[in-house]
């Protein structure tokens, strides 16, 4: 799917649109805004198809365009700040059992070595497992993680968009990363080593 247009490249637009819409819905939490962002991203990608060089997958290229559309939506929302309520869905107790009274890892809970990170990230199967782990996060937690880590939205903008404090944002990001670590350990790294 990473071939340039000139070699008969035909993207599966229906499948791509579904993936883009799921991602936009997770971030924007508004079907109309999500559909608008996806439509704008797809139209922009088709209008600029000559710029696609095939150095990455077509879907990756369109996702990058969508990310910019989502960030634009966040900026527009920030100009019209409302008092949305943000519910934290992972309790503080969820990870306390992993640490001792001095806040060090308990012996049996320490993360195991994950080998060569570059080799792991290049494996398509890893990203499938990562998506499953991300999907299993509480939606509000996944949203904060995706805004910060995938969309690269500054913490201050995440806080404005979600009406949360920087401290709360930091806690949510920490919990998201911990939950992803545990999930990846159980579903990918332990399976690979077994």
The secondary-structure class comes to: mainly alpha
The amount of beta strand, in percent, is under 5%
Largest β sheet strand count, sense and barrel closure: none
Number of helices: 9
Helix/strand order = HHHHHHHHH
Assembly status: single chain
Architecture of the largest domain in CATH?
Answer: Orthogonal Bundle
Q: Give the total of domains.
A: 2
Q: Low-confidence spans: pLDDT under 50, at least 5 residues?
A: 1-7, 82-89
Sum up the overall morphology in one term: globular
Question: CATH class of the largest domain, anyone?
Answer: Mainly Alpha
Helicity, as a percent range: 55-70%
Distance linking N and C termini = 32 Å
